Task: inverse folding
């Protein structure tokens, strides 16, 4: 089931994830890497996982069946 973000979640997603992904270097990243020093909504983690699975970010792939398993940027 697709996650529908609230306006606040959408702003956070764009600021902390969408704006950062194009600038990531090759490596392994975890959802918490996008929010250093703060807690993020689990809904944002699920949304990122869905977007990666839908190939919105062609330079990024999921390592498993949940966002917690990490992402590879290549």
Result:
């Amino acid at each position: 089931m697709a996650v529908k973000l609230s306006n606040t979640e959408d702003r956070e997603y764009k600021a902390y994830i969408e704006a950062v992904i194009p600038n990531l270097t090759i490596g392994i990243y975890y959802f918490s890497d996008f929010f250093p020093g703060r807690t993020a909504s689990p809904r944002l983690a699920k949304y990122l996982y869905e977007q990666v699975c839908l190939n919105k970010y062609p330079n990024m792939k999921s390592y498993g069946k949940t966002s917690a398993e990490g992402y590879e940027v290549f």
User: Anything to note?
Assistant: The CA atoms of residues 8 and 14 lie 10 Å apart. The mean pLDDT is 94. The first strand starts at residue 27 and ends at 29.
